[in-house]
């Protein structure tokens, strides 16, 4: 049941990205072009995503378990440090250059051609490299 709900949720998310135009790299890059032909669509999509998430976080404070069972993950730490700023800058640069972030890139795989496939492959490779880096960093911290 959990896999079915996850698949339906992912499909709904992908459909939302498609309907809102967030799989169109020109639209995303238009949002980031503050001094050119600025496109505010992404601001509305982000605002529309924040409202239900605020409601969801408030709801989880009263309910310790998810509807389908299992623990609800803790709210992320709200610490602004060098790692967060560096990661945010790298994410933003990649997003501005390619016009894709992970969700829309995967949603666009069916129609984005070789460029979209190359982006997803590079994204997966980057995630793998980061996982290796984290393991090495944790191992070094334990031995120090």
Automatic annotation (TrEMBL):
InterPro entries: DUF6691. The keyword Transmembrane helix applies. Keywords: Membrane, Transmembrane, Transmembrane helix. The chain crosses the membrane at residues 41-59, 80-100, 106-133. Pfam families: DUF6691. It comes from the Bacteria. This is Membrane protein.
């Amino acid at each position: 049941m959990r896999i079915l709900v996850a698949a339906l949720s992912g499909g709904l998310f992908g459909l939302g990205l498609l309907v809102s135009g967030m799989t169109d790299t020109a639209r995303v890059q238009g949002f980031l072009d503050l001094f050119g032909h600025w496109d505010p669509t992404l601001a509305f999509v982000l605002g529309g995503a924040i409202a239900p998430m605020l409601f969801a976080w408030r709801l989880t404070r009263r309910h310790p378990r998810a509807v389908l069972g299992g623990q609800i993950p803790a709210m992320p730490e709200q610490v602004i440090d060098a790692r967060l700023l560096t990661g945010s800058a790298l994410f933003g640069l990649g997003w501005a250059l390619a016009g894709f972030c992970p969700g829309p890139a995967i949603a666009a795989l069916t129609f984005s051609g070789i460029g979209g496939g190359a982006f997803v492959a590079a994204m997966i490779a980057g995630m793998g490299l980061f996982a290796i880096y984290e393991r090495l960093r944790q191992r070094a911290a334990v031995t120090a």
